[in-house]
Amino acid sequence: MLARLFVLSAFLVVEILLCRPTVSIAESLYVTSYDDPGGIYKISSSGGVSQFAGPANYFASSGIAVDASGNVFETDQDGTVLYRFTPSGTRSTVTQIKGQVVGLAFDSAGNLFGAQWETNGVYKFTSNAQPVLFANATRPYALTFDAQGNLYVTNSPSLTAPTASILKVAPDGSESVYATGLIYPEGLAFDANGNLFVTQGNATGEIDKITPDGNLSVFATGLFYPANLAFDSSGNLYEADEYSGKIFKFSPDGTRSTFASGLSHPVGLAFVPEPSAIVLTVFGALTLLVILGARLWTR
User: Fold this and answer.
1) Does the N terminus or the C terminus of the chain have fewer Cβ atoms within 10 A?
2) Which residue has the higher pLDDT, 36 or 207?
């Protein structure tokens, strides 16, 4: 059976006939560093590490998100300044923030949301970059969205609630409790099947998995202060292991491998597709198509 793949560049349309191909997009992983030397690392799909932003006079926080154009949004270590980095690394200040923003996430419509730790709220940034209260939560830390556009946010322990929970916030702002009995959740990420993965930070050193029907199980243990999580387009889970300085990669079956090491306190994670890179596998033979401007290379 033949499958058709149309590749469009600025001045060229190429039609390629393939026999039962599989297609994957190469991606770069952005990692924030909380401590000296600070800044943001960029890790290629092959595991190569480079400094994307900083480190001079810039210490990043755990909040990082990437928009549809590949711009990276990040808050400084105090969480009081929101920055935007172009794909080439040029930094500009988006806005000053009253309160400490420690988590960032985009919804499917391109709206940016931030978890403000000190003010106990989740804020939506308006078109003029001003934060407007969207939901209430106790010292929220991590944010993520499901495929239906619902927002999930960590809710820290308090005097009235001795354990942490995860709140679900519908697009209309209505709130409900999605999961309870957690200790100190710090990272959230959904897989393609609607399972929510949660890191337990310095509490247990584990990653938990919550199925769509609410069943919680341990996915991985033995981690050294697991922070944030992110999935690539192939369904592999990545975890920022802050105190070991590593990024661990978990295949869909749970097999763990070291994706990167030697990092300084990695905390925030966000994927962005590497532009102009498409990997096609045809009957086990690998073909790499790189589209740049109006030209097409194959090798």
Assistant:
1) N
2) 207
- Cα separation, 120 vs 122, whole angstroms: 7
pLDDT band at 59 (very low <50, low <70, confident <90, very high): low
SS3 11: coil
Give, in order, the Cα–Cα distances in Å from 18 to each of 5, 96, 285: 8, 51, 12
- What is the rounded CA–CA span in Å between residue 271 and residue 88? 15
Q: How far apart are CA 69 and CA 84, in angstroms?
A: 12
**Distance between first and last Cα of the chain:** 24
Tell me which of 72 and 54 has the higher pLDDT: 72
Distance of CA 102 to the CA centre of its chain: 13
The torsion region of residue 244 among left (phi > 0), alpha (psi -120 to 50) and beta comes to alpha
Cα–Cα distance between 211 and 27 in angstroms, integer? 26
